[in-house]
């Protein structure tokens, strides 16, 4: 029995089934996503969503959905499901759904009288093409399958409406048609493994609603264009494969291509296998470079997310070559930053002051999770150049003071991962000496000293170590307060006493000026005030401004974004701190910390983790429905835990 599996009772309950989403991606940034009922609940959903460089490089929904109709004895049974104006659902095809499972590929079983139809979907790894295989498992009389495509041809974050500019023309191709609704868009090819009768009946389906967008306060209603439908005779035991992509395909090869795609997919038989599969979704390759997508459906490649995610998405699951390739692209961006050039690769937010320090942390994970000597030999010069870049004062917003600490101005623009803005200013204005930036700085100096000693430059390494010791003393004097936890930031008399999770980063690092006893006090207060079953809160309920529910309009959500919401990626630093303190005896507690997240494999986007969760029960998942930093953190800490188990 599949690990991810839902039966008829749930499938026929819209309240339970519609919030459960599936996501398939390839390495070009394209994706296919919907609910398990194939009823879109977001404007970002679609069977074929692809970047269109010739327009704007953003993702665009070409094929929104595909309705299936089973016909027997002239009676039509439509398996589709759409929400229309007023919350009316039609044609209520969910009542025929009997089972959904996802071991290698998403699979749905429908039953219409004596007809049992299986639907399986794959998204090709290296082509912008979705393949859907329909297999008639049982039927007692002649059966016809009709497929009706709903086209959008619009940006994934926008909506479309009936208009006279839409091009209705189409051309016949092998076992299908090709069409393009608007100038500048790629041509959409819709073909099948079996010759069909195509019936051209152009029509706009008006007032389709997206419930999730409506609940979030976004525009949520659009019209979709249906050019016609494909009709096939299908026999018991027969399979028909429908393909929608940007290139014409040899229809004779569709059966073998589908089987090959299924074969390369790894099964989802447990929690870690689900996250391993999810890890592959964030890789993106274009223009000869290898990127990490921060999350789906709307994020691009971002610098901080790249460095925080890369170890977990690659090293933790044994994919060393992927780390090297993504790091090679990231190194181009780092060199551009240090040389004062425009960033020449598609990585956003490279100028944030903590980015160089997270880059060094990322390289340090290569040393910890794979090979220390190779890390120093391969990336040692880069680490040293980053240190010199900071010490020379060449970063515009990272200033090394005589006390060995780094000062950052965060009053007008966010400078850390707490980056939401309200009314044009940071919602959480962290500024001055920021706790994790200076913890990462101490860690980087110590790591660089080790690299220099490894390379035979003991004198420079000693100088670097001296700077680290000065930084470490100032760190404790500045941040460690009489209550046993770390201040979040200090800027003269502007001191943040808020209990936030950033102190966990300091406590978890390989090199830290904190003693074990000091780490334990930090760990204990975070356990009492920040830990939840879904991860770590961004602010303690006892601190002022606690706002744990991420909902409302955009401004309300931005204000709540880091004021008590829960972030699973911080659980990685929490568990790592636990292991630093308790070593092997902390493993059982670490296991218990992950139990709450295992349940998320069956909610929201199946088999992955949402961007954030409400800070109060029931800890509802919010934001992007698949987030790289969260997936990566759990995989990374699972790898660290396995080393203790194998000790």
Q: What does this entry show, briefly?
A:
Helices cover 33% and strands 27% of the residues. The protein has 647 residues and is of the alpha+beta class. The model has no long low-confidence stretch (mean pLDDT 95).
Structure description:
The protein is of the alpha+beta class and 647 residues long. Helix content is 33%, strand content 27%. It contains 17 helices and 35 strands. The strands form 10 sheets. A 9-stranded antiparallel sheet has the order 1-9-10-11-12-19-16-15-14. Strands 2, 3, 4, 5, 6, 13, 17 and 18 form an 8-stranded antiparallel sheet that branches. The protein is elongated. The model has no long low-confidence stretch (mean pLDDT 95).
Question: Oligomerization state of this entry?
Answer: single chain
**Side-by-side strand order of the widest sheet:** 1-9-10-11-12-19-16-15-14
For the termini, the CA-CA separation is 33 Å
Number of helices: 17
Rg on CA atoms, Å? 26 Å
Task: Name the structural class.
Answer: alpha+beta
Which overall shape is indicated by the principal axes computed on the Cα atoms? Answer: elongated
Strand content: 25-35%
Helix content class? 25-40%
Sheet with the most strands, sense and barrel status: 9 strands, antiparallel
Give the overall average pLDDT: 95
Total strand segments: 35
List low-confidence stretches: none
